[in-house]
Amino acid sequence: MQNNLKSLFWNAVFVLVLVSIGGLVYLSGKRIDYNWNWERVVPYIASNAAASITAPEDGNIVLTKNNHLALENLSGEVIVDLSGYDTIQVYQGDLIFEGDTLAYQEEWRIGPILEGVIVTIKISLWSLMIALALGLIIGLMRISSNPALKKLSIVYIEIIRGTPLLVQIFIVYFFIGTVLDLERFTAGVIALSVFTAAYVAEIVRSGIQSIPKGQMEAARSLGMSYPKAMIYVILPQAFKQTLPPLAGQFINLIKDSSLVSVISITDLTKAGREVVSGSFAPFEVWFTVAALYLILTSGLSWAIQTLEKKLAASD
């Protein structure tokens, strides 16, 4: 009974804190005398606006055998059947020129904010996969007994971690991208991958070194070569150890992807900046952008936690 009361008390404290934060945001909005217009943001996420259907060439509006209006070109061929559209703007016998509006059709279309979300997901997924592979290689080089490989990995890690990501994006795009004729998206993926791989390499190194040396010795005594022992014995155990820090690094990768907007990649951040200038609702747009980033990072966090539980259950 006492434990239930204690749990209820702390849950009430949790709710009170959340309500207090919400109240502070509300009072801040009142204090700056800002009129919230959330409805302005909705069309930039998704809209059911009517799209105009235009004439592909000159012709006349005729009535077909099925009593449907249609556009007939000068050769007498029906080129546009208007029976399936919501709002028809022409009448039988009208003379139509190329580019004239024939009808309007309502259809759901994603707005620039959702398009930015899609670009962010694409660039984050590509960067995540490349960074994981590259970081694994650099991490193995980091613990190698070969002095050249070890020193090269140390230099790579120190240079990448010691310079800002923004600078690296500029170098990859304006220098390497110019030499190799890279597209913006490719340059952004490379910069994010190279940056994240340096941190992944250190996570992999620490994970491998956390496994007792007896594991490698036991695998070698069974006749396994060093690569086989590493792949089948050490790395699976190290992967479980490194999953939580890798999750944090991949969440940072999603947030760091916002910096690619500086090279004119229309990701979620750049889309938000463009929508602000057109909607005149800066706070609503940036709160929406923040919420979408939170959804992406929370989804990744949930997926990794689920994987972590499954791996723990399999032990």
From TrEMBL:
Domain of life: Bacteria
ABC transmembrane type-1 domain ranges (all copies): 117-304
Annotated InterPro entries: AA_ABC_transptr_permease_3TM, ArtM/GltK/GlnP/TcyL/YhdX-like, MetI-like, MetI-like_sf
Membrane topology category: Multi-pass membrane protein
Alphabetically ordered keywords of this record: Amino-acid transport, Cell membrane, Membrane, Transmembrane, Transmembrane helix, Transport
Gene Ontology MF annotations: transmembrane transporter activity
NCBIfam families: HEQRo_perm_3TM
Function recorded in the entry: Part of the binding-protein-dependent transport system for glutamine; probably responsible for the translocation of the substrate across the membrane.
Protein name listed in UniProt: Putative glutamine transport system permease protein GlnP
